[in-house]
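During the reporting period the student researcher (J.K.) took over the structure-prediction task from the postdoctoral fellow and processed the backlog of single-chain submissions. One of the processed entries is reproduced below for the supervisory committee.
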Amino acid sequence: MSAEPGTVRPGGRTARVRAAVLRAAGDVLAEQGFAHLDLADVARRAEVGKTTVYRRWGSVTGLVADLLGDMAEQSLPRADTGSVLGDLRANAALVRRTLADARQGPLFRAVIAAATSDARTAQALRRFYDVRVGEWAPCVEQGVARGELPAGTDPSLVVRAVSAPLYYTVLTTGVVPDEAAADRAAEAAFAAAVSGVYVVGD
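J.K. obtained the following structure tokens:
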């Protein structure tokens, strides 16, 4: 069974082509949004043959899926501060910086908007966040092991609770949360976790 376009990770010279195309696609998303993402334009920006782009990615959604996969792989690793609250604050700070970034912020907003009406983009976005949540889940698991959080606490629920209010603020007001807001998001998630809100199962 052959893989979908944009899902095979290349090496060597092909890797350089992929990097150039993904960089160009990210630029278009950040500058103009999903509606203006065109494979021929991306190929021109990346200085790559148009047929190469069409053959490898096949569609705009295939290209976005690969871009999100690459972003998940390249994202910074989780912090290890020695405490759950410290780790969650670091996570909130990273999310806030991403949303405030001149390129990354508009790029994410464009992809999130596209995901509301395009199933494949939505699936790729879910995979991206599954990878990132999985990267940070050990901070909660270690907190449970240290006795900071109750047994049965669901790590993914806690991690998602940190970033949820930050994304909500951006999407509903257009304003990037400040550092104080990021700290509050982490503290609220931690307080809820301590109280057992995110304990699942028996």
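The committee noted the following: The CA atoms of residues 140 and 164 lie 17 Å apart.
J.K. will present the remaining backlog at the next meeting.
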